[in-house]
Amino acid sequence: MSVDSQDPVPFVDLALQFSAMDAEIMDAVRSVAEKSSFIRGPALGEFEKKFAELHGVRHAIGVASGTDALSLAVRALGIGPGDEVITVPNTWISTVFAISHSGAVPVFVDIDPDTYQMDPVALESAITSRTKAVILVHLFGHPAPMSQIVAICRPNGIRIIEDVAQALLAREQGGLAGAIGDIGCFSFYPSKNLGAYGDGGLVLTKDDALAEKLLRYANYGQSGRTMSGFHDTVGYNSRLDTIQAAILLCKLPHLGDWTEARREAAVKYDELLQDLPIKRPTTAPGAEPVYHLYVVQVNDRDACHAYLRENGVMAQIHYPMVVHLQDCYRNLGYKEGDFPVAESACKRTISLPMFPEITTEQIERVVDTLAGFVKKADA
Ligand SMILES: Cc1ncc(COP(=O)(O)O)c(C=O)c1O
User: Which atom of ligand 1 is nearest to the CA of 139?
Assistant: First the structure.
């Protein structure tokens, strides 16, 4: 498929990825339909096995979405009313909803201004006798400072949930994101680094007892993967569809190459953006990001966003409002200024087009357009 130089630069290009895998994916979908193995079919078991092996962890359980993965993780850790769970205010809302749905109270801490990840010093000072868990978000595909956070949480008996929705295959000090804490929660939302053709998610754990609980909650409160009809827990119906698992199985062997392609695109952006007055992504020592998003900081972000889109560069904003100031969390009593680093990042960051197939020409066009905005703003 050729890219016309006048075509807009998309934020992601899922149709292009599909066109390269069309026959293989349609065969996989057809096979599920022919076998009528829509629910807990063999492709799901195979995908879960491969995903667990990839992370060197015993248990991978496919669930209906990344949002469900987080909610199930909080439930499986026995967290509920009276408990506090610490997380960051710059994340997709699902991270925090998982805490609220359990009846526990979300407690926010600020982030590092360079990596946008949880600040371990802020975490330490937010711990109280009610703190039961931390949900770390490996935001934008850069890993959170896991080693420092593990060192703070473990002696205090605080459980660690990793929100790996944006960071599949990212590493921190050699450890794979999602395989370090107690439970790793993944999303296969279509535009994620490994995307399904609909919603999908997965929980990962080394702990046999936690795996059993996760499975029970996800399977209507029944034991294991059976449909016994005996429900000893009030559970949920949260499954990864076999069709989605079959598609993910086709894509999984390409994930390594796609991740490298994202890293190469990031290097190209870094190189071309170095003379512009914008803040590029920073990689912490020992971190190996996977660039789910390539996020920069600019002055007058909203005008920049509008200018880029008017000029055919489909940039996006992640996220337009920090969670502690969302209407749904007014009851928590936070106010503007409580988390100045996250609030400032929220007003200044913009995500540039990033996907494995992005071409050098497309990156050049993004950078040229950004340069045009900077020049216009300076004039
Ligand atoms: C950081 C983060 N957490 C959680 C989620 C929720 O995942 P899902 O859309 O699969 O429910 C997403 C993605 O949407 C995300 O980016």
Answer: 1
